[in-house]
Amino acid sequence: MATRYPITMHYPKKSKSPGPVGHRPSSKGLPSDSSSCPSDKYKDYAAVVIDTGTGYTKSGLAGDEKPRSIVPSVVGVPRYRTKESPLYYIGKSIPQRRAEVSTHQVMTHGVVTDWDALEMLWHHVFYTELSVCPEELAVLVTDSPMSPTTNREKMAELLFENFEVPAMFVAHQSLLSVYSYGRTGGLVIGSGYGTSYTAPVHDGYILPHATYRLDIAGHALTEYLAKLMGESGNPFHKDEMEVVCQIKEKCCYIPEEYEGELNADEKKYLMDYTLPDRQVISIGSERFRCSEILFNPTMLGFPEVGLHVQAISSIRKCKPERQADLLANVLLAGGTTMLRGFSERIKKELQKMEPSKKVGILASPNRTFSAWLGGSIVASLNSFQNVWIDRQAYNEKGSFIVHRHCF
Q1: Average pLDDT over residues 148-175
Q2: Transmembrane segments in this chain: where (predicted)?
């Protein structure tokens, strides 16, 4: 049984322990910054909540209604170190120094690919973005659906060994998204920056055998939009992807009937867009052709089925008596589901495949950070305080404890 961590407890800094799985020293020699941490500024909060996604990392304190910080999940390391240069750069400072730094993407398609970069990113989140000491607060972090089981073990090692947290927990993004809706079950259709997925949840339990992933999401849409615009006479350099992303968010949409929209009069969808340099360009069918890859991955040469077909496959993998309830409670999560027309298209496609059943779509206005919000809700509950994995349990059982203890 994990030790209860009262919300008002102020955790003393603990000495570093080698741990049962071997201590992994900080490869970058990151400072602890413990001397500059406020001693009691956040002692009334239960935990820090960090949702690290492929594109962005959302972080804040348990009980908050929205993240206090959202930063890109990319780290810049100086190519040539000087006494004045920082150990790393995070966020908007990186593009301005591309010649001076090597960039490291923390994740690819929801899976951590650079653990040193993740350590630097979390260091920045704790000490700069949130101004908290990780040694003093429990930490809840998220994990993406269908990620390797070793992901959770390494997260536990990193938090206990390198950041010396007193307690931690890892939770699936899909389950936390369900909690953000105030529910304990439903079919989550998630689409963020690097990956999309469909995941059924029943009574607070994920059904992994019925969870599917599609490696097409917001970033793929942005790249495809750039390709389409280049073909229509508006080329963009790879360094201008942020501009293309802004065009996607402001101009693109998902029609209910793709073929009908494609065959419609061009005047229906043609629009002008003013670039940051004040140049005006015209955007036509690219506005909806780029988003169609979510429903027809073969347009990119992918053999997978579309997100709507995956959703039905997830439902049909569940027990027959649960299928109608899942179809009636489809919960959208992730920034890409914010595209205009997404919820209407999903509903129409699902209804087309299940005409005799009711389809219900829930689309929270906060679904861009639904996983983080679910973590904030869960970590602030009194009933959750006995669930944390504490240092003693970690030292006794090792990092494998996350598989038995975390949901």
Answers
A1: 95
A2: none
